[in-house]
Structures are given as structure tokens and as C-alpha cells.
Specification:
Elements: E1 3-6, E2 9-12, H1 36-47, E3 52-59, E4 62-72, E5 77-78, E6 85-86, H2 91-104, H3 114-117, E7 123-124, E8 127-128, H4 134-138, H5 151-157, H6 160-166, H7 173-181, H8 197-211, H9 215-227, E9 249-250, E10 261-262, E11 278-279, H10 281-292, H11 299-305, E12 309-310, E13 319-320, E14 325-328, E15 334-342, E16 345-351, E17 358-363, H12 371-379
Antiparallel strand pairs: 1-2, 3-4, 3-17, 4-5, 6-11, 7-8, 9-10, 12-13, 13-14, 14-15, 15-16, 16-17
Helix pairs in contact: 1-12, 2-8, 2-11, 5-6, 7-8
């Protein structure tokens, strides 16, 4: 997407000219499958410094898989087309889908207040759960402070020394919320928009209060198992990524040496229901295609999910629904989906409104690379100029 939605919040997608860490694995491969531009955009990301890229697209012609660069810098192993990876905030779409299913079953309303389900949890420094609805959690209009913006949390989780010391620590959802409650709200509920991971930690807590089961169990029962998403999991506190998988790399912003660190292993409870999930490109395509084609939600709930609020005055074509982002590309095509970022992993998954053309891909580095260029290449490939006589 043209904004990055990850554990650290929303920031502009960057395209930095850094030295390549690996030679593109498929730079000279013939593009007989009609995805030449997408492959070239993946290679360009590797040339800009992303260690490796893996992706998959499905359309009326079938399924295409592409990789570039390396999945493991230590062993020089190429990126695999079946790699599993951490998908970060894409987890949010799964959580929102569960809540909308519960609404369709009459077990909650999007207009219920947070305090109705979680009494006394959202309070302090001006926060008031009695004035915030479930809908406002899901579309980020609640005004609740984003816990990942807290300076101490950032030093502990995203700073070099803090991460290396605390990467295996467990963070309970209530602890994450308490970090946010120590700050003032960003704005009064419903008056603006700001991406806040706290919203979806609370959304996961609401799922548990309504159903008596964890959000992870409800996602497995309601989405993963019916769609046969065999590569998708919610690891909880497990620190490894199930195989097949490559490694994940970062450059810590406070590291004076600007070294590349392997950050594959971490305790994903730092993200909770805002971003703990592991998946692969095939599963993500299947999920978003099924969602947009009405296989997971009744028409009324899907329509609610697609009611967007503006994200930026500078980008009128970009809107955020209930964990679904809408964007318009340079060629005028409309896409729906979500992006996600967590240490060493940057993922995008998008689909056309009819769910019939999907693309999901992952960078295994989080400091460089133009993901929007990959999306544009897949859905708006430039036609080669005709030779002039």
C-alpha cells in the first residue's frame, strides 16, 4: 500500500538506494508467465538492499510464484516460494473478520462501547471506554494512544540493545494496553484518524470476552480451518517461525555501525492481536480473495468492513475500513487489502474488488525497498512501446 501499516505504526514506504546484499536470483529469468514487471520490481527491491523477496499472484490465468535474493545471508540460501513469514498487522484483518462474524450472529454490535465489554480497561489520562465503540477500534478513529509510540517501549522493543536483551520477553495484552493508558488520547473519539495498535489489542480482548475463547482460537476455528490455510498460525509466545522459512533481518536505527541483524527469533506477544500472525503468500491470497468474494462474511458485514475513513488529505484515493485498506493505483484500478510490518519482515496483500486477482509478497528486511512499486507492477504493468518503422 502507499502507507505502511506495521507494529511501529504508519509511515511512508521508503525506497532507499542502499548497496545490494544479494544478487537477484531471478534477474535474468525469462518472464513467460506475464508477470515480468512484478519480477523486475522484486529484483529492484533486492538491488536496493532487501535481502530477499517472495511473492505469489493469482488471476484468471492461474497462479504465479516469484522470488528474488536470499532467504538466509549466512548460508546464501535463495528465498523460497513457499516461505512462511511474520505478517504483522495483516493479523488485524483476521481479528476484524471474527468480530464481524460475531456481529452477524447477533452476539455484539459495532456500536457497543468498549467499556460494555471491557469495563474499566480503557481509562486514565483522558481515555474513556464509555465513549469509544467497537467500530472505532476497528477503523482507528478511537483516538486511543498507540502503545508502540511510547518511547520506553520503543527503546525496549525496537532499539538495538533493548531488543537483543528483551527479544524473548512475554508481554500480556493488559500490559500493552496499560502502556497506552499512561498517555493522553490522540484526539476525541470519532473526530480524526490515527493508526493505533492498541485498538486491535483491545479488539482481541473483546473477542475473548464475547466468546470465552482467545482471538487466536476463534481465528483458527472460523477462518484458518474452513479455508484450509495450512501455513497460517498464531504463535502466541513461540519465538520461531515454522518451516519452510527464511530468516528476517533489520538495521536498528540507533546502531552506529549500521549492521544487519538476524531478528527471526522473537516473542510475538509484543504484537498480540495487532500483529502476531505467521503465514505465507498462498494463504494470504486465499484469505483476501475469500473475504472480498463474500465467503467469510454476509453482505451486510462485508459492506461495513468496506466503509472507509480518510487516511490522508494528500491521498484522497486511500481509505481505511475495518482492517481493510482501499487504494487506487496510477492506472485507476482499485485494490483492497492490508500491509504489515514487524521486526525484519514487511508484507503486503492486496486484491481486486471481486477477489479474483490477488498479490501477496514479503520482504525479509525492514529498512529499505519499494513495496508499492511491486503492487503497481503487478496490477498496472507498463506496456512496451511499439517499434517505430
Amino acid at each position: 500500500m502507499s502507507v505502511r501499516t506495521g507494529l511501529v505504526g504508519v509511515a511512508a514506504v521508503v525506497s532507499v538506494t542502499a548497496g545490494a546484499l544479494a544478487t537477484p536470483a531471478l534477474a535474468d529469468a525469462p518472464a513467460k508467465d506475464g508477470h515480468r514487471a512484478t519480477r523486475q520490481a522484486m529484483d529492484a527491491a533486492v538491488a536496493a538492499g532487501v535481502p530477499g523477496v517472495t511473492g505469489q499472484a493469482t488471476d484468471k490465468y492461474g497462479t504465479w510464484k516469484g522470488t528474488s535474493g536470499l532467504g538466509d545471508l549466512r548460508t546464501n540460501t535463495p528465498r523460497g516460494d513457499r516461505d512462511r513469514y511474520r505478517v504483522g498487522s495483516i493479523t488485524k484483518t483476521f481479528v476484524a473478520t471474527v468480530l464481524l462474524q460475531l456481529e452477524a450472529e447477533g452476539r455484539l454490535s459495532l456500536d457497543d462501547t468498549v467499556d460494555h465489554w471491557l469495563p474499566g480497561v480503557v481509562t486514565g489520562h483522558g481515555h474513556d471506554g464509555r465513549k469509544i465503540t467497537v467500530r472505532r477500534l476497528l477503523n482507528h478513529t478511537s483516538g486511543i494512544y498507540n502503545y508502540t509510540a511510547d518511547k520506553d517501549f520503543q527503546q525496549t522493543v525496537f532499539g538495538r540493545d533493548g531488543f537483543l536483551k528483551h527479544r524473548y520477553d512475554t508481554w500480556a495484552p493488559g500490559r500493552l494496553v496499560s502502556v497506552a493508558m499512561a498517555h493522553k488520547p490522540d484526539f476525541a473519539p470519532g473526530t480524526s484518524w490515527n493508526y493505533s495498535n492498541t485498538n486491535y489489542v483491545l479488539a482481541g480482548m473483546v473477542v475473548k470476552r464475547v466468546t470465552g475463547h482467545s482471538y487466536a482460537d476463534e481465528i483458527r476455528r472460523r477462518i484458518i480451518e474452513p479455508l484450509h490455510l495450512r501455513a497460517t498460525s498464531l504463535p502466541g509466545t513461540a519465538v520461531t517461525v515454522p518451516r519452510p522459512a527464511g530468516r528476517a533481518y533489520t538495521k536498528f536505527p540507533d546502531d552506529p555501525d549500521e549492521k544487519t541483524y538476524d531478528v527471526t527469533e522473537l516473542n510475538p506477544s509484543i504484537a498480540s492481536s495487532a500483529g502476531e500472525m505467521v503465514s505465507d503468500s498462498a494463504d494470504l491470497n486465499r484469505f483476501y480473495s475469500a473475504l472480498l468474494r463474500g465467503r467469510l462474511l454476509p453482505a451486510a458485514q462485508l459492506a461495513e468492513m468496506k466503509k472507509t475513513v480518510p487516511v490522508s488529505k494528500d491521498e484522497p484515493g486511500l481509505g481505511y475500513g475495518l482492517a481493510l485498506m482501499r487504494q487506487k493505483l496510477s492506472c485507476g484500478k482499485e485494490l483492497w487489502g492490508h500491509s504489515g510490518g514487524i521486526h525484519g519482515s514487511s508484507t503486503d496483500s492486496v486484491t481486486t474488488p471481486d477477489g479474483r486477482h490477488t498479490l501477496s509478497f514479503n520482504f525479509n528486511g525492514d529498512w529499505t525497498g519499494d513495496s508499492q512499486a511491486v503492487i503497481e507492477a503487478e496490477f498496472c504493468p507498463k506496456q512496451p512501446e511499439e517499434k517505430r518503422s
